[in-house]
Amino acid sequence: MFSQNRMIVVGSKGNVANSLLPKLKYNHSHVTALSLTELAAATRTERVKFWKTLAQSEEEVELVWISACTSNNVQKKELLKVNYRLPVEAISTITSTTRLTKVTTFGTVLEGRGLKQNNYVESKERLSGWLAQNLEISNLRHIRTHTLVSKSLPQSHMFLGQLLTALKNKQALVFKTNGRQVREYLDLETFVSFVSDAICTNSDGVGAVETVGGGSLLSLRQIVKLISDQYFTDLEVRFVTDEDTDGEVFPENPIKNSIILPFQDSKQLLLRRFGEWLGDV
Fold first, then answer.
1. d(CA 270, CA 212)
2. 91-113 pLDDT, tens per residue?
3. pLDDT given at position 202
4. 88-93 contacts: CB < 8 A, separation 24 or more?
5. Residue 73 and residue 246: Cα distance in Å, rounded?
């Protein structure tokens, strides 16, 4: 059944957007997809005018904020603007103009763990903190997720991306960590199906921060061994410290997931994806 509300989706590009948008359009008759890059390039005056004009034409609006800048190579000021100030600006402006019935934003499971010198995590902590203080605005849902993997190649600055590059080019890798930290990996399509259902069925008046996981943990060292064994190669990967990194996730202090997605075996998922990325399947 179609919803008649105007749904504004910020994020018209990227793996999550490419998979989620068609599902949202199937359930909503009025979906407007916006580019985060274009919003960020506009002046604040231009953005506020745009949000007000869009909101004034609707009795009720739903907002889904998909996009974010994830790279720590971007200056902290820009990360805070894109990941924190822009969604807050949109929510505040739309709320002052019309009824904002639902808000869905996305974050990371590393929020609130004291991770130092990670501007991306800090920007997401700022956003979820603001949402927690403004639950009366609307039906807010902030979804924190582990690393999502799909057929698309992983980003080069992330652990899997670096591992893939080293494997393809037979390069050595050095990480300034002890390799004990653990990761959970989620299949992107399974995650997107959950998100689509959550957005379409979430009742009004409920504020929630949800941590979505799969319950299957692997340490960085285990991942290296898994891929080395699969491809019969001795990956030259060195972990050059014995100390734990503040804020990271270790076996003795794992992430507490509030929602567990079914059939999310990190080991099998990684083996399948590396095979696809390397052209084996």
1. 18
2. 999 988 888 888 999 999 999 88
3. 57
4. 88/127, 88/130, 89/44, 89/47, 89/48, 89/51, 90/8, 90/10, 90/47, 90/51, 90/63, 90/65, 91/63, 91/134, 91/137, 91/138, 93/47, 93/48, 93/51, 93/52, 93/55
5. 20
Q: Rounded to 5 degrees, what angle do the CA atoms 247, 252, 254 make? A: 60
Long-range contacts of 49-54 (CB under 8 A, 24+ apart): 51/89, 51/90, 51/93, 51/94, 51/97, 52/93, 52/97, 54/6, 54/8, 54/94
Q: Supply the pLDDT for residue 205.
A: 44
Measured N-to-C along each axis, helices 159-169 and 266-277 cross at an angle, to the nearest 10 degrees, of 50
Rounded Cα distance between 151 and 225, Å, is 22
Q: How many CB atoms lie within 10 A of CB 264?
A: 20
Residue 245 in tokens: 């990194």
Asked if 208 and 195 count as a contact pair (C-beta separation under 8 A), the reply is no
87, 44 in Cβ contact below 8 A? no
Which residues on adjacent β-strands are paired with residue 104? 64, 141
The CA-atom distances, in angstroms, between 56 and each of 45, 98, 190 are 16, 7, 36
Number of other residues whose CB lies within 10 A of the CB of residue 151: 12
d(CA 107, CA 115): 14
Q: For residue 57, what pLDDT is reported?
A: 81
Structure tokens at 113: 């763990």
pTM of the entire predicted model: 0.90
Q: What is the CA radius of gyration of the chain?
A: 20
**What's the CA gap between 223 and 229, in Å, rounded?**
10
Residue ranges for the chain with pLDDT beneath 50: 1-2, 204-205, 281
Closest CA to 98 of 138, 128, 64, 67: 138
The DSSP element (H or E) to which 159 belongs, if any, is helix 159-169
